[in-house]
Amino acid sequence: MTLRWQCICVDSTDPSRVAHFWEAALGWRRTERLEALGARRISVGQGAESTWVVLADPDGNEFCVLRPLTPLERAEDSGVTA
């Protein structure tokens, strides 16, 4: 049996340091670049189980970033059946 991680979320007081660690440990690249460009996370009442993150750009315009679809979800959306 194989385990494949698609993403990891870690709560930290120093997210850059922890992200650097996991990026190196897992051979991944960071993709939370929107916050580095000035976006900030906001709450609009989404629950912890949400499959998206709500951000605001530097002018306060809100937008959502959705998790990527799994291969099964992509197949279902395209009408392809297994």
Structural account:
By secondary structure, the chain is of the alpha+beta class. It has one domain. Helices cover 29% and strands 15% of the residues. The protein has helices spanning 15-26, 33-36, 71-78; strands at 40-41, 52-56, 62-66. It has a three-stranded antiparallel sheet with strand order 1-2-3, with no helix packed on it. The chain starts with 14 loop residues before the first helix and ends with a helix. The mean pLDDT is 80.
Spell out the blueprint of helices and strands:
Elements: H1 15-26, H2 33-36, E1 40-41, E2 52-56, E3 62-66, H3 71-78
Antiparallel strand pairs: 1-2, 2-3
Descriptive tags:
single chain; alpha+beta; 3 helices; globular; 3-stranded antiparallel sheet; 82 residues
Describe the structure concisely.
The chain is of the alpha+beta class and 82 residues long. It contains 3 helices and 3 strands.
Strand-residue proportion: 5-15%
Q: Enumerate the spans where pLDDT stays under 50 for 5 or more consecutive residues.
A: none
Mean pLDDT, as a whole number? 80
Could you spell the SSE succession in H and E letters? HHEEEH
Largest sheet: 3 strands, antiparallel
| Whole-number count of domains | 1
Instruction: Give the number of helices.
Output: 3
Helicity level, as a percent range?
Answer: 25-40%
Structural class: alpha+beta
Strand order of the largest sheet: 1-2-3
Distance between the termini: 20 Å
Secondary structure tally: strands: 3
Shape: globular
**Whole-number radius of gyration?**
16 Å
